[in-house]
């Protein structure tokens, strides 16, 4: 670990708390002005919270779903893990269906099922320890990626990020935001810009607030200002997270990521994707095979709950897009960095995964 990073300063928010009785989720719909945890005591409540974006961000929804399985287990009476797995399958399917694009959700549930099937009459304890391990490993991965990603950034550089990839989206510290935090701590990142990230405003409501907790200055920009910023030379790197990374290096992430990658390449700027290996999906050959979540068009029709668009207007609200591998300079995971990703390099690092 790099002892120049003061994690107590740079990682103070926890979106997911397991009390032993309930799963407490920081309600991200209400940030930054209200800090309120929602207590879930059943797996369907967790699935509903994931769908409603009470908890969001690829790693965080995987962790929440894992604890959702622990909650579902309370309603099940089984002699061993195999029997419990069969009885828990419907609840796990409902958790898996909460959101389609981030593979971390299915990944975490598959891990829980594998742990269950290997367990005997201690299956309840095994489920709880697996959920805790998923969370602990995510935090460790984020710290490692912070060091690896920051090492690519020259001292004093400006960075632009999109959506929210910080403590709020993970077990802690963050993915792209972890690289930015490590980079600030090491003097590599000199200026931080954050996209607003319409329509849900993860950037303006969450990212700049998170950075403010750390005492990191960040400048908010409208999504539409990104190319203007990249052109005028204040930024060397665009640093983003991911919801699914395919076998050929294509990356699904928050809507608007693709146009940032195009603009970065056009303006000669570097583009970095930061994600734990739980986001890598070697079973999906390319971005063409990813289901892109489409949400209620109503999210586009107003601001802060106030309608701003004339009645009767139609809207389309895809909430992720796919950035082709050819536009990516580096994919940073806790297992290592893939530069100029392609299928051969992905297979060399992740195998069949
Ligand atoms: O719809 P969201 O807010 O869950 O989307 C989040 C993103 O797209 C993040 O960039 C991604 O999940 C990585 S979070 C570490």
From TrEMBL:
Coiled-coil regions, chain positions: none
Gene Ontology MF term list: S-methyl-5-thioribose-1-phosphate isomerase activity
UniProt xrefs under SUPFAM superfamilies: NagB/RpiA/CoA transferase-like
Signal sequence, start to end: none
Record bears the keyword Isomerase: yes
InterPro entries linked to this entry: IF-2B-related, IF-M1Pi, IF_2B-like_C, Initiation_fac_2B_a/b/d, M1Pi_N, NagB/RpiA_transferase-like
Pathway: Amino-acid biosynthesis; L-methionine biosynthesis via salvage pathway; L-methionine from S-methyl-5-thio-alpha-D-ribose 1-phosphate: step 1/6
Pfam families (UniProt xref): IF-2B
List of residues binding substrate: 56-58, 99, 202, 253-254
Active site: 243 (proton donor)
Site for Transition state stabilizer, residues: 163
Annotated EC: 5.3.1.23
Biological role stated in the UniProt entry: Catalyzes the interconversion of methylthioribose-1-phosphate (MTR-1-P) into methylthioribulose-1-phosphate (MTRu-1-P). Also catalyzes the interconversion of 5-deoxyribose 1-phosphate and 5-deoxyribulose 1-phosphate. Part of a bifunctional DHAP-shunt salvage pathway for SAM by-products.
NCBIfam families, per the entry: eIF-2B_rel, PRK05720.1, salvage_mtnA
Protein name: Methylthioribose-1-phosphate isomerase
Naturally occurring in which organism (per UniProt): Luteimonas yindakuii
């Amino acid at each position: 670990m790099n002892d120049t990073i003061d994690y107590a300063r740079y990682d103070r928010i926890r979106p997911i708390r397991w009390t032993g009785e309930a799963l407490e989720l920081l309600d991200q719909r209400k940030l930054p002005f209200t800090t309120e945890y929602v207590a879930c005591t059943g797996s369907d409540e967790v699935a509903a919270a994931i769908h409603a974006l009470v908890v969001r961000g690829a790693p965080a929804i995987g962790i929440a779903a894992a604890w959702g399985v622990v909650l579902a287990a309370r309603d099940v009476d089984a002699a061993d893990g195999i029997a419990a797995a069969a009885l828990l399958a419907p609840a796990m399917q409902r958790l898996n269906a909460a959101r389609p694009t981030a593979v971390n959700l299915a990944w975490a549930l598959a891990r829980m099922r594998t742990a269950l099937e290997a367990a005997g009459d201690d299956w309840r304890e095994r489920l709880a320890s697996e959920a805790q391990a998923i969370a602990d490993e995510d935090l460790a991965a984020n710290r490692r990626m912070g060091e690896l990603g920051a090492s690519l950034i020259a001292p004093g550089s400006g960075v632009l990020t999109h959506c929210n990839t910080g403590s709020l989206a993970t077990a802690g510290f963050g993915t792209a935001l972890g690289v930015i935090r490590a980079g600030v701590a090491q003097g590599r990142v000199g200026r931080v810009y954050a996209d607003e990230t319409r329509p849900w405003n993860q950037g303006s409501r969450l990212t700049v607030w998170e950075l403010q907790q750390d005492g990191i200055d960040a400048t908010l920009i409208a999504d539409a200002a990104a190319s203007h910023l990249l052109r005028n030379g204040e930024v060397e790197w665009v640093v983003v997270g991911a919801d699914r990374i395919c076998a050929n290096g294509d990356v699904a992430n928050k809507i608007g990521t693709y146009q940032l990658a195009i603009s970065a390449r056009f303006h000669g700027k570097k583009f970095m994707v930061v994600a734990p290996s739980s986001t890598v999906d070697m079973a999906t050959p390319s971005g063409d095979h990813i289901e892109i979540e489409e949400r209620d068009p109503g999210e586009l029709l107003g601001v802060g709950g106030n309608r701003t668009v004339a009645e009767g207007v139609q809207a389309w609200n895809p909430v992720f897009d796919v950035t082709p591998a050819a536009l990516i300079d580096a994919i940073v995971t806790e297992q290592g960095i893939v530069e100029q990703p392609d299928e051969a390099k992905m297979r060399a690092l992740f195998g069949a995964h």
